[in-house]
Amino acid sequence: MTLQTTTYLVVGLTFAIYIGIAIWARASTTKDFYIAGGGVHPVANGMATAADWMSAASFISMAGLIAFMGYGGSVFLMGWTGGYVLLAMLLAPYLRKFGKFTVPEFIGERYYSKGARVVAVICLIVASVTYVIGQMKGIGVAFSRFLEVQYELGLMIGMAIVFIYAVLGGMKGITYTQIAQYCVLIFAYTIPAIFISLNLTGNPIPQLGLGSMMSGSEVYLLDRLDQVVQDLGFAQYTTSARLSLTNMFMYTMSLMIGTAGLPHVIIRFFTVPKVKDARSSAGWALVFIAILYTTAPAVAAMARLNLMSTIEPVSGEYMVYEKRPNWFRNWEKTGLLVYEDKNDDGLVQYSADPATNEMVTIDRDIMVLANPEIARLPNWVIALVAAGGLAAALSTAAGLLLAISSAISHDLLKGIFKPDITEQQELLASRIAMAGAILLAGYLGFNPPDFAAGTVALAFGLAASSIFPVLMMGIFSKRMNKEGAIAGMVAGLGVTLLYVFQHKGIMFIASTAYMGDMPQNWFMGIEPNAFGAVGAIVNFAVAFAVSRVTSPPPEHIQHLVEDIRVPHGAMGAMNH
Description:
Blueprint: H1 3-24, H2 30-35, H3 42-53, H4 56-69, H5 74-98, H6 103-110, H7 114-146, H8 151-201, H9 206-209, H10 221-231, H11 245-261, H12 263-266, H13 275-311, E1 319-320, H14 326-332, E2 337-339, E3 347-348, E4 359-362, H15 367-374, H16 379-417, H17 423-446, H18 456-476, H19 482-504, H20 512-515, H21 532-548, H22 555-565
Antiparallel strand pairs: 1-3, 2-4
């Protein structure tokens, strides 16, 4: 059976499962649509949360980043995993105890202000839309490569699949679909890693294979990789760090607090029956996420070694371009792998020197998807990886789209503009908002903005600078009032967007006359993708300063804050 036929069968089977689950779990109430009825088991919710969290960025991009950044890529492992610890300890149980459907609803009631709720909706949409761009792009790339269709057609197929199970099932359908998607993506990630670890080291456990000796050799895998990359002029894999110490710290912090502030992840903790289940869900999510995240460094190192050993064989002989392997030809068709014969000798020369390097493009996002092909694994394994990549992108896209549609239908329509609409009218509005969000996401997938394309970290920075601080202050500060919360959100989001857009040359707030000549990374050398932590500091500082010169919150709000923190872990659902 050919690779394409196998891929069609495997991907088609997984899609049939997703759609079948959506029909079975069709939402009939707003509670089903927003929080899956509030009765999801903590283990199941942990698995769904892991799928919701592990997007195309985790499945496709993270190992690619580590493969080319080496040691410096650990910022993503530390930041994204550490964020879940913050979420489990500082946010999830308290938000669940408050017992509302959405993050803006919590902010609106905690800060006794419709204005605060509207600002929170804007922050949510800005962060979620930025994030969803990357997911739709990942869907289009994966479909176009493995189903051998045009990128645009691949994206449209992905949009249709998300539309069916997200619009039909809402959070209920998405939850159970994400459980299936987690199973698909984790098998798709670990099975090739096991095969490749066996091939290279003889150890079937990738995490151990990373520190093992090469098969038939006395050389450790990482030592061999260091030797190969240095021979070609690249920095040593195990010690190189592209980021400065300041950038490394701020990048990690931005990813951590951005993770804890992502609305599509937070709403998952509203779906469990009890307060204690929220913390339990976060713990289970960490377990399920750790399976992939501890495998990623091994996948990254082995993929980089396989790639270099294939293009630049150990014997020192260059690959003849006309005899390049099938995987090379397949990825050339996508434009993500580009060869240019600079000296007309027909050989493929790969090095760190731009003047002689003939591999002018090796997109880091191909590493996970191409690795099974490079390692010549069976077709069913390659097809499984395709299904896993699509599952990762689809699961996160669905969660983000639900967060966006809920903010529009529940927080704006029901909460602000038409509070007297019936439940069925709200459910219809939710589905219309979801359809609109999918169309917007599809448009951005076809026409990704330059400043956001390929940079999921920016979404984390936006969530870190706007949503995380206001949630923390809402739970732990009785003195924080609506004026401080609104000012903090506007200031945090504003300075982050301004820094990012200034860096990219997009002057939509300040004119070129004021900022056009400013150097890149002008603030303490911090990169835009790491600036979310600075935005969060600004948010906290402005919020506390404003709250000190304005009236304190009403007494019942202060009692509400105390009540949220009372450690009644076994309290029933929906106390308020």
